[in-house]
Fold this protein.
Amino acid sequence: MRRRLLAEGLGALLLAACVIGSGIMAQQLAGGNDAVALLANTAATVAVLAVLIATLAPISGAHFNPAVTLAACVQRQVSVRVALAYVTVQVPGCCAGALLAHAMFDLPVLQASLHARTGIGQWLSELVATSGLVLVIAFCGKPIDAAWRVALWIGAAYWFTASTSFANPAITIARALTDSFSGIRPVDVPAFIAAQLVGAVLGVVLARWLKGPAAANATI
């Protein structure tokens, strides 16, 4: 269990550091072109997700995401005790990743985002992104399948959702701690997380409908 928790915490830290750090770098180099900045942010996120999942999935399952852990718990792939333990390292891990990103770019380590992200379109986007993520994972038979499928889903959802696909409560909390390209106002966080958790449950339901009883044994 210690190795599993270390893998989850380390993976969450590196994932958040990449999402936020690449956003900072992209914003600095894009010269005000948000499309170019988002493209760079997307590419870095896709790459780090693929690598982290392929590397750490054999140890912990490479959730890095309380919504994914919730889906696994609902499907009885992990116990409630393990799920709670995972979440207790995922959230601090992502928050530490935000602080690390600031430190690497010589920015104030402690920040609060002023980036407004609210409204029905944003919430619906998070529901779609998270339910799609859980559905994609449910059809992954091996960690190597999850590495490229999850990375490509998140990369695509960066562009086809209005919220740019957070799809992760831990990342959402961490992104409230950065007033950079990737940030979200703390006041907007609860609605995002609520939409993500509903999306996770919806993803489980869709997987069961599509796969039947075998969906309960899918690998997450």
